[in-house]
Amino acid sequence: MADLNGFDPGISIAQARASSADRSLAALASKERKETCTDAELQEASEQFESLLLNFMIREMRATVPESSLLPRSMAEEIFTGMMDEKIAGDMAESGGIGLSRLIFDQLKPSE
User: Which of 32, 40, 62, 89 has the fewest beta carbons closer than 10 A?
Assistant: First the structure.
């Protein structure tokens, strides 16, 4: 039921977050060229990016679990699951995640 009139809520939410994270990183990169951004802004952008990647990973992992024909998934359940995956990915990124946000932060931080 994920393809109800061509609308997949999980993909739409993820695409919106991806474009938001891309804009954040692009804005920070251009801002860094003009003037240095604060460490807090850079940390936030790198955590958003890691959260986005973790969300993709969680969603793909969930797709490998076979669905039961006994209880088909409803659209509400798909939306809730997508939102729950986003929250889990965000919490993982905030608590250190897989270390990607730290690497991005170190790479983009201007050397003093």
Answer: 40
Residue-wise pLDDT for 88-112, tens only, equals 999 998 898 898 989 988 888 877 6
How far apart, in whole angstroms, are the C-alpha atoms of residue 34 and residue 14? 30
Which residue ranges make up each domain of the chain?
A: 9-62+73-108
Cα–Cα distance measured from residue 9 to residue 19, given in angstroms and rounded to the nearest whole number: 15
CB neighbour list of residue 32: distance below 8 Å, 6 or more residues apart? 108, 110
Q: Please give the full DSSP string across 51-90, using - where no structure is assigned.
A: HHHHHHHHHHHHHTSPPPSSSPPPHHHHHHHHHHHHHHHH
pLDDT tens digit sequence for 35-67: 567 888 888 989 999 999 999 999 999 999 888
